[in-house]
Write a structure and sequence with these properties.
Length: 259
């Protein structure tokens, strides 16, 4: 893993680097830069996982620098470091994962790592989605827990869609079928998505759920799935015994195609 600390004050920059070393694995590589020019050079030449940016940088401030970093390296996470607890509206509207208040400690950095927008899963293990029979998801052979049954059904439907983007209106129609739509249900969809993300975050797989412009989908690269393997011919014909996501009525359409 590679990290970048950008701060124009040498002592502050050194202190952040020192705390960062305590918070990340020993084999991590940490770069530091005193200005935007050096920072962008480092971004172009390395695969930076997290960039810790001072907001009040000279010439090009941290907010503008964050936008340039994301253009060059979309997978880099941004964490702002600031001495001011009152953040500007512009700062909130960036892709920053979180804000750290100076002086920055190891504990604060560790908490920031839990809030990254673009966490990376470097292990070979994927989420195992069981679609034949009753739907279940496993990670390291343990079931993934969801605090709401409809969160699990939400994820099941996205897996059924095989990575295609699904709008919130479609999700509501699936979860509540013929029931009247309402503002409360629209809000609840966001609650369910947040619940799914929380469950995935706990196993380091938050990027398995994709939310873009009001649409939801799953990142198929994060899943091993009997349904996917079967339709791609990777499983023998007798692997499917006539049951598919048995608890969900909407799954009957896919079941019909499998039969």
């Amino acid at each position: 893993m590679q990290y970048l600390v950008v701060d124009d004050e040498k002592l502050v920059r050194g202190a952040i680097v020192s705390e960062l070393k305590k918070a990340v694995p020993e084999d991590s590589e940490i770069f530091d830069a005193e200005n935007y020019i050096k920072a962008l050079d480092i971004i172009r030449e390395n695969d930076i996982y997290v960039a810790f940016l001072d907001i009040n940088l000279p010439v090009v401030n941290g907010i503008e620098l964050s936008k340039q970093i994301v253009e060059i390296s979309p997978e880099t996470n941004i964490v702002f470091a600031t001495a001011n607890s009152q953040y500007s509206v512009e700062a909130w509207e960036t892709e920053a994962s979180t804000f750290l208040l100076k002086p920055i400690t190891k504990a604060a950095i560790e908490k920031a790592m839990e809030k990254l927008r673009k966490p990376r899963n470097h292990g070979a293990e994927k989420i195992k989605a069981q679609c034949f029979g009753n739907f279940e998801c496993f990670y390291h052979n343990k079931p993934i827990a969801f605090s709401r049954s409809q969160s699990k059904e939400f994820l099941a439907y996205l897996i059924d869609r095989k990575g295609a983007e699904v709008g919130a209106d479609e999700i509501r129609a699936v979860l509540w079928e013929e029931e009247e739509d309402s503002e409360a249900k629209k809000s609840y969809i966001r609650t369910l998505a947040s619940d799914i993300r929380k469950s995935l975050r706990e196993i380091g797989m938050e990027d398995a759920l994709i939310h873009r412009k009001g649409n939801y989908s799953v990142n198929r690269e994060c899943f091993e799935c009997d349904y996917y393997d079967y339709i791609e011919g990777k499983l023998p014909g007798d692997s499917f015994t006539g049951e598919y996501m048995s608890r969900y009525s909407w799954a009957e359409n896919t079941l019909a195609t499998l039969i």
